[in-house]
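Fold these two proteins, one after the other.
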Amino acid sequence: MSYSNKYTFAALPRTARGTPLVLGGDPKGKTFLYTNGNSVIIRDIENPAIADTYTEHSCQVNVAKYSPSGFYIASGDASGKIRIWDTVNKEHILKNEFQPIGGCIKDIAWSADNQRMVAVGEGRERFGHVFMSETGTSVGEISGQAKPINSVDFRPARPFRIVTASEDNTLAVFEGPPFKFKCTKQEHTRFAQAVRYSPDGSQFASAGFDGKIFLYDGTTSELKGEIGSPAHKGGVYGIAWSPDGTQLLSCSGDKTCAVWDVASRERVTTFNMGQAVENQQVSCLWQGKHLISVSLSGVINYLDVNNPDTPLRTLVGHNKPITSLAVHPDRHTVYTASHDGTVTAWNVNNGEGRHITGAGHGNQVNGMRATRDGGLLTCGIDDSLRVATPSGEGEVPHYTDCVVPLGSQPRAMDHILDDGTTIIATVQELIVVIGGSKQSTLPLKYEPTCVAIDPKTRHVAVGGADNIIRVYTLDVRTLTPSVELTHLGPITDVRYSPDSAYLVATDANRKVILYSTDEYKLAHNKEWGFHTARVNCAAFSPDSRRVASGSLDTNVIVWSVDQPAKHVVIKNAHPQSQITGIAWLDDETIVSVGQDANTRVWTVPQA
């Protein structure tokens, strides 16, 4: 049996308040780059559902940039390492790895001939370095600034120049090669955050937290003037030139983006992105005909010059680890929730994501189930169960005013589609909820970790941190204990098969164990123990013939119920990231989510 990755619903950029984000653009204009955690994410600009990830960095990556040839990408991380890897092969073979500075890298620039590279950031002994991209040999010094450097750019024409923007409010200009400090520019009164040369190198622009944008001659570095006065009411986080060099795009903490005419230095268009804090704009990119900005929430906006108040499209998703996964009963929509409380509905046919709106939890979602009518039930560590319902056919659910207080922190939940019964396991009790209100509670003397209901037998399996699964019988709203099953490690997940014949349980002792439900005995004498770390989640295929499990070891394993010795390993399903949720869309399609904030859809054909 083989498998293939059908889709990756990519993570959004990881943002931080008050910190600019750097987007990278493909010189051919087809893709763009950003980072999240230790991943570099490459997205197709026309069809963002096509995404690729590079995950070979061992710590957080801050910036990635294409070489002018388009054949290589250089990515820099928090430890000061730069990896140069190829874009042609799917494996992204590493070409070189260098350590130009001894601290966090904030920006990278290539020379137009692909031969030289400059990296800047928060080095301990220096804030930047220029070197040959083939050998790492030094070709000059980046000096003359007293604080970390936020941004750098290479003049794309000869004579070569490098300009840097620093937290000491200055720009520094270097001439070479070999590159030597020429002068500093002190027009900004607060952190200088971005600096970019025009495509022909005839001029460069700088932007700072003082809300100002300045324009300089590309060769002499003489100040030509200020764009706008000031350009924005808040700090300017990023600037990008139009391909013909006649216009400039800027993005700001004042929740707007703007297009400027460079010749007249006047504003052409203002894009109002919203009123909330998360609508602050922390990055921008002008890629061919596409104008892209990134909001503080991580949402990627395609700006529309003809309709500045409404983006052409927005790319949503998660930029924090995903903690919960649910599938709509029609199996065309997948819901994912992250530890910041964001819930996204994904259309599995085209990869389009939309956020669930309304007053949600605002913090980690620990359990989520879809209802028969396309609604959504979520429980979070605000100690509540919340209900989201769709306003119309095919609409994404919206959180309603229906909130059920739980009294203590929920660990897991399950829901019967037919009659709407929901059972929530909190740290103190099991709660039965029907019709949006509590019907009964059962105090617990152990800490529950997971819960599953079998709609046919009305059995409720509850896994505990004490290594025991307890099976209860549900009579309308009353839970009665019946069976106990002991494992060698804390229980992490329990699931009943759709045909009610089996219960699968996973534990922290790396095991996936299958029970038959008639007597709760082991279904076969074959132990499923091929994971190498704690197993986090499991799910049955709709035909009950296969089980998929996801683990801390980054792997997904698909097990056969009929042939227990057979299994398929999807190795590194979420590279360098544990898998936090798994579900089946049909008998040959699996969806997995992980700590890397990515949602992946896999095709695993039956033998």
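Now the second one:
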Amino acid sequence: MTPNLVGRVREALRGDQRVDPDALIARLAAVRRFLEAADGQLPDTQLVPAHTLVERAGTRLALSRDHTVVALAGATGSGKSSLFNALARFELSPVGVRRPTTGVAHACVWGPLDGATRLLDWTGVLPRHRFVRESALDGDDESALHGLVLLDLPDFDSVQRSHRLEVDRLLGLVDLVIWVVDPQKYADRVVHTSYLREFHRHRDVTLVVLNQADRLPPAELPRVLADLRRLLDADELGGVPLLATTAVDPNGITELRATLERTVAERQAALRRLAGDVDTVVAGLEELVATEPPTDVPDTGPSSGLTRALAGAAGVPAVAEAVEGAYRHRAAASTGWPLVRGWRRLRPDPLRRLHLPGPPTGGDAVDPAESPVAATSVPDPSATQRSALGLAVRAVADRAGTDLPDPWATAVTTAARSRLGDLPDALDRAVAQTDLGLDRRPAWWRIVGGMQWLVTLAAVAGLGWLALGYALRALGLPALDYPRVGEAPLPTVLLLGGLLAGLLVAASTRPVVRWAARRARGRAEKRLTLAVGAVGQEHVVEPVRAVLARHGQAWQALRDAARR
């Protein structure tokens, strides 16, 4: 609420502060916060009363702080127009035997009309049906009612639908309602079920009068009033003032007039009416929020069903398997026999097949974020994997919305599925940008590779030495005298020993490579699982948590708006 409006509310209160304006301001602000939190989450049709209250409260408090709008409402033949004229002491509203007589609202203003013009414009009373109760002949007789705007409403049981609609509209705008009933129809079902019962939260601004009391024998009047009080108690209107009036006798409205004078003097009716409106709106909104905000936040850990389903849809098992194969492939290319390494490099790298980071070039890994290839070649999810992902998303929504009312549970489900269309690309990017742990060659690869080069050079040296001796003999030159290791010539030892050592090194490192490849696969799978879990957090869980947060805000706002 704006500071100007806050000032107007405070100025609207005079005398005995039975309605705290600051508390009323806080409650109206809380209703506004509820609407902000519920906007887009709940159906608009369910928020219409709250929107209407916020708009109506601001307008009413901004229009006039010196006037009290009181409406006379009643059924056909209840004599409310006669009562209206009796209070005004003029024939202002038409009275006759034809029913309904009052087709439009009439207004009588005590005091200058200028101050009430904007208020009457807001209520929609036509200028030709506005009257001023101000006369030099009255002296100070009417001064106690200065500030009263009395409305004579159409009959709410009129056969003309436009009359009923006008009554319903004005009943939502006035500050205080005087329900006029007569001895014949005071127990009519329409007045009790359609109107009085609906005003049980506005008992502070409700008054009931049994008009035409002169038609009852004096002995019957107490019995009729007691029966009417019983009906009012059944309508949850216990304690509402109940008066007996008659328009044909000036003394028959004395008590009613005194009540109006007190109401006008207090300047409290508008605040009481708004407080009752807030009560009504809050009661209608209570079913739209849970008793307590949900505390069960969806889990997206590695073991959660959503993460497992995302991992399956992202092809994490296939990528992890490719990591294991790539590790073996690269380890063999680095630790294998140098003479066959070139042939092994001709075989495709398993990760390259998936358009994932391949072997490092120049000691640096290829950054997938800078790769010109925008997407991986990870196999598309199968129908089973897509179905599992849909069920996992649904499970997250169901778990989060278990204790929520249907509108919020629906909003949670909608939020959980709101970004499903973005998931494939997001998962693909997450897989492509995950560090799979193969960007650096382990040190032991270099050590084993160096050993392989040494034994290979030894074998080549031995072979070359033997070839040189063979060539000299073929040319008839003196044969070389080979050094011996025991009975074997050293070149032969170098050749056969180098070949045998190379095979032994390769054979001994193969189990280590398999073990290290499985570890690399496990590390990559964990990293990929965390990456796809983050995608699930962003695309599924965060929208759900946003709805839960807004529900919490709405829940707290509704608690603040409740009467304290």
